[in-house]
Amino acid sequence: MAAHTHQARERRLVSEWVTKTWPAATLMFRVRLGSLTPALPTSDLTPAELRRLGAARRWADALAITPDSLNLVEGKLRLVPGALEQLDLYARLLPLTPELAHYRTLPVVRH
């Protein structure tokens, strides 16, 4: 199976599951996580180069935001080594994500 086809099926699976599981939630898909500020010296970089560095951030497959929780979703068609650990990494990156600052008080639930 081509990687592109596999990824498309994975995205569809996540989308269908999240939509069915949290029909009234605020849903976000392929959410970039982490700080916009790279850990490298950036004084010599142009604004366009800095934006490209931000695009290199990790992403969660989906977030379902309810009044009482932030549901972090990583979908896999096949469980691969390290896949579950990704959720732990993503949960640590959430508080560093400026776009999600107003959700920092919500407890994170990993799925």
Description of the molecule:
There is one protein chain. With about 110 residues, the protein is of the alpha+beta class. It contains three helices and four strands; from the N terminus they run αβαββαβ. A hairpin with a 2-residue loop joins strand 2 and strand 3. The two termini are about 25 Å apart. About 15% of the residues are buried.
What's the overall average pLDDT, rounded?
Answer: 84
Radius of gyration over C-alpha positions, nearest whole angstrom: 15 Å
Within the largest sheet, what's the order of strands? 1-2-3-4
**Global outline:** globular
Secondary-structure element string: HEHEEHE
How many strands appear in the DSSP assignment? 4
Structural class: alpha+beta
Q: β content, as a range?
A: 15-25%
Largest sheet: 4 strands, mixed
The unreliable regions are none
**How much helix, percentage-wise, in residues?**
25-40%
Number of helices: 3
End-to-end distance: 25 Å
What's the arrangement of secondary structure elements?
Layout: H1 3-21, E1 26-33, H2 47-54, E2 58-66, E3 69-73, H3 83-93, E4 108-110
Parallel strand pairs: 3-4
Antiparallel strand pairs: 1-2, 2-3
